[in-house]
Amino acid sequence: MVTVASSAALSCPEISLSNGLNIPILGLGTSHQGGYSHEAVVYALQQCGIRHIDTAKRYGCEEALGKAVVESDVPREQIWLTTKLWPADYGYQSTKQACRESCARLGVDYLDLYLMHWPDSMVSGRSNREVREETWRALEELYDEGLCHAIGVSNFLISHLNELKDVGGAVPHVNQVEFHPFQQPMKLVEHCQKEGIVFEGYCPLAKGQALTHPTILQLAQKYGCSASQICIRWSIQNGVVTIPKSTKPERIHENCQVFGFSLDDSDMAAMRLLHDGRRVSWDPSHVE
After folding, report:
1. pTM more than 0.85
2. Which of 7, 24, 191, 256 shows its CA 20 to 30 Å from the CA of 53?
């Protein structure tokens, strides 16, 4: 059992959303299939000073996460809490119901950020585009009501973002997409920046695949840090909100130690050369 002690918030830069709210550039990711640890979340909040936690209904850990937040004794208003709407709940009424159910499981009165998890709607008999537009309208109303302080999407490509723009809806505050040395969708990053959408990256370590790459290991030796810290620092220096996942307290602590150094321009460029289009998560390119 890890002994925890109260800690001040991590000295972590923030990125401003288009509505003026600030999201910490580093957070803790969670997931299903063994990707959640109550002990680790409490440790991250109390001992590491993490103030940004990312989850989703799909992961099945919202209720447990809510209990960890309470146990940490960190005031709710100091934590940026993101969860996601699963496509099976897309649609106007079902979106609103799902949002309220997520809040209830988390034990909170509002969400800092609520994301559409995937561009595919999973609703039979209707086009993905139609369902996405209807779902987004529901998110806009949840935002206007104050239940969601920011709204966004996940795994959306430029075409999906342009659809929302074409119907005159609000611009998403965030687009959360897989981003790591092997998967660098820079055109999408640039599009989001141009449109005022904050780009957030998950799987920054490529599910561990990046940690044994020779270039990354060489940089870790050069900077006197770990391979994971190189990957996270590279992502952050690209202006990407970064949410590494770990269930091990010692790894979470390590992943937070990325603000005491910077990669020089030549090393940033060397990391750019590692892009090979490899995905370790879902591929949204087939979704119309």
Report:
1. yes
2. 191
